[in-house]
Amino acid sequence: MLQQLEGSRAVAETVARCRPEVVCAYPISPQTHIIEAIGAMVKDGRLAPCEFINVESEYAAMSVSIGASAAGARTYTATASQGLLFMIEAVYNAAGLGLPVVMTLANRAIGAPINIWNDHSDAMAVRDAGWIQLFAETNQEAADLHVQAFRLAETLSVPVMVCMDGFILTHAVEAVDLIDQAVVDSFLPPYEPRQVLDPDDPVSIGAMVGPEAFEEVRYLAHLRQLDALELIPEVAEEFAALTGRVSGGLLHPYRLEDADTVIVAMGSVLGTIKDAVDARRGAGERVGVLGVTAFRPFPVAAVADALAGARRVIVVEKAFSLGMGGVLATDVATASPASGHDLATVVAGLGGRPITRRDVEGILERSAQGTLPRLSFLNLDDDVVARERARMAASRRSGPFAENVLRDLATGGAHR
Amino acid sequence: MFQVRIHGRGGQGVVTAAELLAVAAFDTGRHAQAFPSFGSERTGAPVVSYCRIDDHEIRTREPIDEPDAVIVQDVTLLHRVDLFGGLAPSGFVLVNSSQPLEDLGLGELVGRLPSGHLAGCPATELALAHVGRPVPNVPLLGAFCALTGEVPLEALARALRHRFAHEVAERNVAAATIAFDLVRDHEEARRAPTA
Questions:
Q1: Are B61 and B124 in contact (CB under 8 A)?
Q2: A58 and A146 assigned to the same domain
Q3: Of the four listed, A98, A144, A233, A408, which is most buried by Cβ atoms within 10 Å?
Q4: From CA A50, how far away is CA B134, in angstroms rounded?
Q5: Is this complex's ipTM strictly greater than 0.85?
Q6: Given A216, A243, A270, which residue is the final one in a domain?
Q7: Which range of residues forms the domain containing residue A261?
Q8: pLDDT value at residue B194
């Protein structure tokens, strides 16, 4: 039944229908509402049998999740930003050990400077950890992806991270069709672990592996990621057959037929980009959008295929690698044919800066005019940057640049 | 699409107001999207929330820069925050105040917008009297229903009953209904030919 729900509530209700047996998490904005809602459902018995384990940190949250999953429990957690960084050693361990934990990442910027708003820096920081990373475009997709995530994780023995834009999705109230319990039960069989800590049939998990086998063990994990490239679309198709909804899969192509310019992006900004593309299509321009749902594993062949007809590709991404440029764009470039298209990266939406339809139309205009640089930063205030560079040149003790920039903005540039 | 921007301070139910409006609009079969613009949450800090209402699917995620209606929950924000930036030429303005809007320094707005598109509503007083807490959001939503006609009062009442427990819901419905009547009666009096 279609309901008007907060994104966090929709995710919590859906996760509960996946019947997790252990939930362990530490609150951090903008993930908190999800965890509060699940905690309340465990407390009032709506989610049972399930143990909600309170811990003192994110490091403990992921460590307990690893223990619970190794003991054979369906395990869920959620975090964001600094919380993800704090648990990062255990994040790598969950994947390295092949434990199918499902985690929501309410995407948020990483400090310093501290910032609670949305971008994708946190997800990018664990890009190489060995988790499947799926990005939701809407709250409907965020909810649906969790059901698919448990199925993927448990089938492959690989942990799955469902990435949803913090605040923009987690705190947005919009229509969501919550999946029926019976549908989840038919889609998601009880968890049958490939490895389990069982006193009646003891094994050890977490061996020390030296140079004689480390490469092979890592390569086996890589092969499971490649298996996921096959399984992700299958699971999405099966889900669509049951629910009638197109959620998940590797990619979301939109108006790519005959498109000579294609914007590639991930997450909730795709909605705004689609509005911009419709407007430009209305003006006769051949533009389209490629939404990347599966960022890890990265669907190299499917991206290459989707972009085969494009002359210009513009990657709009909410993160970047300092000293290099786009992160998603680097992967898109890997998937691009050698002879192929012009590729431009627009870094946008950092730390919660809005990305508007007008901004996207401006990007398309500059691309059409040939004035879009290979790497650019949307709505960057060049004057503020120049004034701080001048302060740094003028004085050795110019001070902390975040504070300087804030003071500069507050005084309209009068700050020396 | 009809776009609403709500300005207030932390603790005044600014975010809840946008959510209730979205639920009420959804209840009438329309598409709706509500979302907040949070800073670090602090009681008393300026807060903005947004609500879009449309007959079609809403895909955009950008903040509302060109609202069709602005609700001001706290008059101490007037002339301190850019409350009316981007307001549509035939937009609506609703202010939590029992004073005439001209006395609040809003004469320019009164002159610019169509008559009948601005209203004041003593929402804090109504909330204190009927709900028992100085939270002006729900009475302002009742007034919004009367001022704009975008959402029927009955749908707002259903949203309130869905959100709050029985007694609290009924108190809020009463406060919203009185605010609705105040704005409607004021508008009818304005339109009535003077003898």
A1: no
A2: yes
A3: A144
A4: 40
A5: yes
A6: A243
A7: 251-377
A8: 64
CA A248 remoteness from chain centre: 12
Instruction: Using pLDDT thresholds of 50, 70 and 90, give the confidence band for residue A413.
Output: confident
Distances (CA, A) of A414 to A386, A388, A399, A409, A410: 13, 12, 16, 9, 9
The pLDDT tens digits of the residues spanning A106-162 come to 999 999 999 999 999 999 999 999 999 999 999 999 999 999 999 999 999 999 999
Q: Which of A56, A76, A57 is nearest to A66 (CA)?
A: A76
Do the Cβ atoms of A247 and A148 come closer than 8 Å?
A: yes
Cα–Cα distance for residue pair A342/A312, rounded to 1 Å: 5
Kindly determine whether residue A175 and residue B38, on different chains, have CB atoms separated by under 8 Å.
no
Task: Verify that A92 and A153 share a domain, yes or no.
Answer: yes
Query: Which of B62, B65, B158 to mutate to probe the A interface, most A CBs <10 Å?
Result: B62
A218 and A168, same structural domain? yes
Neighbours of A286 (CB within 10 A): 17
Q: Which two tokens stand for residue A267?
A: 């997450």
Residue B193 clears pLDDT 80, i.e. is over it = no
CB contact under 8 A, A173 and B19: yes
Q: Is residue A10 helix, strand or coil?
A: helix
In angstroms, the CA A78 to CA A308 distance is 37
Cβ contacts of A275 on chain B, cutoff 8 Å: 59-60
Assess contact for A161 and A133: CB atoms under 8 A.
yes
Number of other CB atoms surrounding residue A111 within 10 Å: 14
The amino acid at residue A50 is C
* Distance in angstroms (rounded) separating the CA atoms of residues A270 and A137: 6
Regarding whether A181 and A69 lie in a shared domain, the answer is yes
8 Å CB contact of A172 and B18: no
Angle, CA A369 vertex, CA A365 and CA A370 arms, to 5°: 115
Domain termination site, one of A209, A243, A277: A243
Residue contact A174–B33, C-beta within 8 A: yes
Look up the CATH number of the domain holding residue A333: 3.40.50.920
Phi and psi at B107, nearest 5°, equal -55, -40
Confidence of residue A339 (pLDDT cuts 50, 70, 90): low
